Amino acid sequence: MTTRGFSCLVVFTLMVLVACESDPDPMPVVQAPAVYKFSRDGESTVSFDGQTTRILMATELINAMEDFEVAELALNEMWANETAAGGDADPFENPALNESTKSVRSKTAASQDYFSSNVTEAIKIKSEFESWISAQVNEVFPNELVLAEPGIAGQIADDVSIRYVNGDGLEYNQAVNKGLIGALMLDQMVNNYLSISVLDAASNRADNDAGTVASGKSYTTMEHKWDEAYGYLFGTSQSESDPLPTLGGDDAFFNKYLQRVDGDEDFTGIAEEVYDAFKLGRAAIVAKNYTVRDQQAAKLRELLSKVVAVRAVYYLQQGKNGIPTSGSDFGAAFHDLSEGFGFVYSLRFTRQPDIDAPYFTASEVDAMIAQLTAGNGFWDITPAVLDAMSKQIADAFDFTVAEAGS
Question: pTM higher than 0.90, yes or no?
Fold first, then answer.
């Protein structure tokens, strides 16, 4: 070999060595488990008791809003739980809930990304829920035997049961129920626990890299934050690790409506996509592959927000189709529009996958709510308004009004 050839070989070899030494360590390959099970030293690291508790509290609150014998104080306690853990008021039928220091109110409109620096709006949102709870007792309950008409609260019949509405035709219990799907469940999932600012807060990433668990726990803080997001969707499932077989029957909040959207042939498979993203993201945390974790968090923001949007359009369209062309049989239409009202309200808490912003701003949602409640509310609403609103929502996502509305 010539001196020139030898020199070239040495230079090439050095270049390869330098290149190899400068390459970053490859990210660990992530393999999602068959079901949502994770353990450390033989002990489960999955925990979301607080989320289960709040779903159960919200369930009792919604049910109690249909009880004409319940006092406003009891409803307020179910909402705020201000005399928690041994106080004089025990509003819940489940004794364990009366002993809890948690509450629905404390986590409503309370995400890190949307409300930690926006206290004014957070207070406004909490106040709106409180006004609906109060109005149920003070407007609707006294008119239990009154036939509802424009401007007058009371009862209105549909083909299934008697509904109780305010003067605009709105069922307050549906506003609270569907509103909490956004303001509590969705907001906590996509704007709090799946937020990078929460997952990586303080020393979370260093602790997760080192396998340092939270004090007295089996999990790292980052693992726990991800699990808490999972809990707002699957926290009351019969099987916490394999929840899809009973999806839709485990609670009346996000769990139920993920199943409803998945049951529409235009969106079949979305439930499995959501479950798989939760599994893969959690596995990525265990593997310390934060690129995959962040990809799954972004995917969940998009999918979970889409569920709310699909149901908003669905109920607006069902309400439109149920408005009678003659006569006074408004009950079925008003029930659908009440559910639509709650899902439209919940659009404020959606999250675009890669930015810190909802699909619809607070002012845009307020404008839609104003359209739904203008004049005599549902009594005056027109198909044209409902179609335009449905299209506005669908256009922000990758579906059509026809796909969601059927």
Answer: yes
